[in-house]
What does this fold into?
Amino acid sequence: MRSLRAAAVGLAAALLLAGCGTSTPQSELGGEPFALPTGPTTWEQTSPAWLLDGTLHVGEQQVRLGRDAEQFVLGATGAYWVRGSDLVFTSVEGETQEVAPTGWGNIAISADHRVFATVDQSRGPTDEYGTHVMQVAAFDTRTGEQLYRTPDEEPDRSDDLADLYSETMPLLDGVSDTRLFHAGRTIELDDGSSVPWNTDPQGGNVYEGYDGALFPDGYRVPVRKRGDRLVLGDSEAWGTGRLSPDRSTLFDVTQWPARAVAYDAETGERRQVDAPWDHLLLGPFDDEGSFTAIAQLIKPRAMTVVRAQQVVQCEVATLRCVTVSPVVPTADDAYPPLFLESGEGFY
It folds into this structure.
């Protein structure tokens, strides 16, 4: 929850914004900002999308990324994904190229796949130890055009960026077609202006405009339990939810594992999701009134052990699901190798 990271992210935001304001020549910044690659064709469809053993499945299409792919998002013409500390692009046709050594696996995509965002530590001003200031950049995935990048400003002389950043990641909390939510500030993509986050009634931090932004996994909203019902709340101190794009259905994502249930957004009434097992990891929604999720078989009396997983696609209106992937068994001591877009998988 963002409120639990308030102090750390606030410190990082202050550091990123409180440099002395001097500009630095490009030759001393580690080069020009990287360009975002794009491909020649677009996806036939963007849902369901899932990654298993290095193969990306997008609708009926399959593209090989490799077993070292750790998370991915879909752009208009391909997939942007993370390998170690590197950002990589693979086109719809399967052509792969390195983008930049961004340093972190902290990426986001807008709900319509048009805007991609990433933190970047491959260039920019450095502290006295040679560590680059962390920047955030946003791009149009249709053209590769850079829409925003943190201005180049020198850090304070006493700053040890490596030490600070080791305690404050991740900093990128999402992107929409018009706004970037990063390090406790809402950034307008059209002019680069920004405002700090606000405080909710329980003292938690809330991004300006966050509640009205549609993300791939719906609207990110605070929720609160009322007996067996789930209703919209006024603070994430009580719980974290996802509201479907049509605003009809709520999901409780406060804790993992989460039960395979949903709630009527108006009445709070609980409804069962017709998934293969009793637990469900919510993924992205699509434009057809459906959502992708991972049904999870959890080991009894060991609620952090996943025994098997399977990708499903479910209708929001009926909560009826169809299986998309094969059943993926998982050994007790292994990390489940099945991922949804935005890195969602076992988390």
